[in-house]
Design a protein that fits this description.
Elements: H1 8-12, H2 14-28, H3 38-47, E1 54-59, E2 63-64, E3 67-68, E4 72-81, E5 87-90, E6 105-110, H4 111-115, E7 118-119, E8 141-142, H5 145-149, E9 155-165, E10 168-176, E11 183-189, H6 196-213, E12 221-227, H7 231-239, E13 247-253, E14 263-265, H8 273-285, E15 290-292, H9 301-304, E16 313-317, H10 339-358, E17 361-364, H11 390-401, E18 403-407, H12 408-415, H13 419-431, E19 435-437
Parallel strand pairs: 7-8, 11-12, 11-13, 13-16, 14-15
Antiparallel strand pairs: 1-10, 2-3, 4-5, 4-9, 6-9, 10-12, 14-16, 17-18, 17-19
The structure holds zinc ion.
């Protein structure tokens, strides 16, 4: 059986899927997410409206590899007011105003004293930065530099109504069962508060991929994991360590809704099959795609590709984290992300999945000379054209290379043609009795 995830329906759905992902992203944007707590759970409930999710609560204090699940953080209010009781900064205006995991505080300070707890971006004076302090107990506010620079000397009251108490960290996953137990793992972090490209774009693309696969037959099983960055992926890996051997391919998804071409960051080894497949699909089908070497920095690929885990997982983004000025600021808002970019990312992931599903090895049943394709309706009958259409070239490449050793991916790489074109040629040749599949 030749599975294809790229029928006409899929291609036609790209724009509509993009709009749906952008609507989901706008819904999720206001939630006060963190690595634990109510905003994270509300996010999981909303994603659970798209596909069913299994939720695991990992208790505070649990040891997960070298880490300990922290206390759960919640916050009701946070503000800075001047000596006339006017609020200068208020959490109600933006979730980014308070440093994530700030301890509770109610103090009155001089402006100079307060400054050491304030974070701004002088180079973008109207933007609010995003800052956290998960593992060092402290407190702080983030605000536009223009607001800070306009503050007169005086005394200010800073109030953070937060709680840090034992609770749990929330993990969620969706499983799509395929014909085999071999798994494709898709991971997206879900801990950032009101930021759109990082990371709501990753969540939207992942959950819509899950929804699209749900009613389709696949060879591989697909596991979608939604978890807070770092501590969440570490907790998930720690809990599931005995089952990691089933993972044949994986992708970390984030930063997929902004401008910029696709960037594929290879796994730790750099030569796993996901590395070949993802890079082949992107370079042959998406303009200006870039391949990045592995680097133990970035998102949760750091955990999936740690030496004792070493999964075959790459990372797909557009312009990566830290390389666009809006990153981790209030300018990373829903208007920074487009439905078109999300739809394109969704399709790119499906094309990668299609190549994972469809790679196979064939043998040419008529290898002495080229078989006569025109007689079988596979070749245009009028010869002499100067340009050889991609499809005809694909037929010839598949026939020439299908010696029982080269897989369709090998052939696609050698031909420099999109995997989908090679796979369709193979399917047509098989249908014409010219090709037989070598059992895996
Ligand atoms: Zn981030």
């Amino acid at each position: 059986m030749q599975t294809t995830l790229l029928d006409g329906e899929t291609i036609a759905a790209k724009a509509e899927q993009g709009e749906a992902m952008h609507a989901l992203l706008r819904d999720l944007f206001p939630f006060a997410r963190s690595i634990t707590g109510a905003g994270l759970r509300a996010t999981i409930r909303r994603l659970g409206e798209v596909v069913p999710l299994d939720v695991t609560e990992v208790p505070s204090g649990k040891q997960v590899f070298d880490w300990t699940v922290p206390d759960e953080w919640s916050i009701d209010e946070a503000f800075i007011e001047n000596d006339r009781g006017q609020r200068i900064v208020d959490l109600r205006d933006s979730n980014l105003h308070v440093v994530g995991y700030s301890v509770p505080v109610d103090v009155t300070l001089t402006l100079a004293e307060l400054r050491s707890h304030l974070h701004t971006l002088p180079e973008h004076p109207d933007w609010i930065p995003y800052r956290t302090s998960y593992y060092t107990r402290s407190w702080g506010f983030c605000l536009a530099d223009r607001v800070l620079e306009a503050l007169p000397e005086g005394r200010y009251r800073a109030v953070i109504g937060s709680r840090l108490v034992p609770g749990s960290l929330t993990l969620a996953e969706h499983f799509h069962r395929g014909a085999t137990d071999d798994e494709v793992l898709i991971f997206a972090h879900d801990c950032h508060p009101s930021l759109a490209n990082d990371n709501l774009s990753g969540l939207a693309v992942a959950v819509h991929l899950a929804a699209w696969l749900r009613h389709r037959a696949t060879r591989y099983s697909y596991r979608f994991v939604f978890a807070p960055a770092t501590i969440g992926s570490i907790a998930w890996l720690s809990i599931n360590e005995a089952r990691l051997a089933r993972i044949s391919h994986g992708l970390v998804l984030s930063v997929l809704g902004g401008e910029g071409p696709f960037h594929y960051k290879v796994s730790r080894a750099g030569n796993r099959s996901i590395d070949r497949i993802a890079w082949h699909v992107l370079r042959t089908e998406f303009a200006d795609a870039r391949r990045l070497d592995f680097l133990p920095w970035g998102y949760d690929e750091r955990q999936f590709c740690s030496p004792g885990i070493d999964l075959p997982m790459g990372r797909l983004t557009r312009t990566p984290n830290g390389e666009f000025p809006e990153y981790h600021t209030s300018a990373d808002s829903p208007s920074f992300v487009t439905a078109q970019a999300l739809g394109e990312a969704w399709l790119a992931c499906l094309k990668i999945a299609d190549a994972i599903e469809g790679d196979a090895t064939y043998v040419n049943l008529s290898p002495r000379g080229e078989p006569q394709l025109g007689r079988r309706g596979l070749y245009r009958s009028t010869g002499g054209y100067q340009d050889v259409p991609e499809r005809q070239l694909a037929l010839l490449w598949v026939l020439n290379q299908s010696d029982g050793n080269a897989s369709l991916l090998d052939i696609a790489e050698r031909a420099g043609l999109p995997f989908t074109v090679i796979a369709r040629a193979a399917s047509d040749l098989e249908g014409a009795g010219l090709l037989a599949r070598v059992p895996a």
